[in-house]
Every structure is written in structure tokens, then in C-alpha cells.
Design brief:
The chain is an alpha+beta fold. Helices cover about 40% and strands about 25% of the residues. The longest helix has 19 residues.
Amino acid sequence: MKEYKMRRGEHLEDRIPDMKAKIEEYFGEISDTEDWQGHELYVVDDPDNPVFDRILAGAAEYSGKKDKLAVHFEERPAEDVIAEGNADAAADAVDAKNDFLLEATGRDAKSRRESMKRAVEDDADAPDNV
């Protein structure tokens, strides 16, 4: 599961007021909800794109902090998708993920990578509990 921050000064609920509708627009019908670390996420068990097996997405709400977008994409092996003749679906899946994340966070792929890299570096600088 990955959590994505919004751009400075922006909030998830302002960018995507109806998370359920937006997930269905990009990935397919929501079949259920699932609890992840106290956050209720939407589940798409049968995504429209054959590259995806399952998708979990929703708002990770924290008291006193800005909400983050929590997303987990379960993907099928590329060999299986290509063997079925769905090679074009792989490019569509990447576009769908990137477009959804850009709309939700206001950050493009490069900005999201840099942010996650900084978070990992900050964690490495933190002292261990000794």
C-alpha cells in the first residue's frame, strides 16, 4: 500500500470530492470496502483493465494532519497479459494509474517519485531506538 501526499496547500477532499465515483470512473465498479490500518478503502475486485487483478483506494484520514491518498494496485504478470493479446492494456493501465494519481494529488509521476525518495532518505536519517 502506498500513501500519496497532496501538493502544498491542497487537500484531497477538494481535489476529489466524490472518491467512490472517481475510482469507478478510472478503474471499474466498486465491489466492497476494506479496512486498512483503520481507514476504509474502496475495493475494485474486477477492474475494467485486464492488467489489474484488484485495486484498493481511498482516503487515509489522520487527525491533525492532511488526508493522504492510499492506493494498492494488484497487477497480473506482464507475460500473462501479453499472452492473452492484451499488450495495449498495459499502456492503458499505466496511463490510468498516472492520470488518477495526478488528478488526486496534483503531482506528476516525477514529483511523486522525488517526494517518496525524500521520505525514504528522511527515514534513514532518523536515529534507531537504541
